[in-house]
Amino acid sequence: MNITHASFVTLPVADQDRALRFYTETLGFEVTADVEMPPGRWLQVAPAGAQTVFTLSGPGMGSFAPGEARGIMLVTTDVDADCGRLAAAGVVVEGPDDLPWGRMASFRDLDGNGLMLITERALEPAPE
């Protein structure tokens, strides 16, 4: 196998412009593609410098239903500060909580897609 990375993650949304505002204004992502093409608008966003992008898939772009994406983990250097910013923007945030693999919180985008924030920590080796 010669896989090097994931190219994109599909986030099904009901309204691409509304989702675009959330991902750029609230999460600080950048637009990496915004192209009209059959069967619809190809819209992608990503954190600055990220290798994997998020496709905001609107109506007509596959059989995806808004809100069905789950378990998407976003790594941050300061989960507490980011949770504070999300809450100030009106986003409902659960956590953050301390877990063996890091400090983690969860939230949903405007369509109900489930996202998580994590500040990772090194795992301790298992005792012998």
Task: Describe the protein's architecture and organization.
By secondary structure, the chain is an alpha/beta fold. Helices cover 16% and strands 39% of the residues. The strands form 2 sheets. The chain has a 4-stranded mixed β-sheet, covered by helices on one side. A 4-stranded mixed β-sheet has the order 5-8-7-6, covered by helices on one side. A hairpin with a 6-residue loop joins strand 3 and strand 4.
List the helices and strands and how they pair.
Layout: E1 8-12, H1 16-26, E2 30-37, E3 40-46, E4 53-57, E5 72-75, H2 79-88, E6 93-99, E7 102-108, E8 114-120
Parallel strand pairs: 1-4, 5-8
Antiparallel strand pairs: 2-3, 3-4, 6-7, 7-8
Task: Provide key terms for this protein.
128 residues; alpha/beta; four-stranded mixed beta sheet; 16% helix
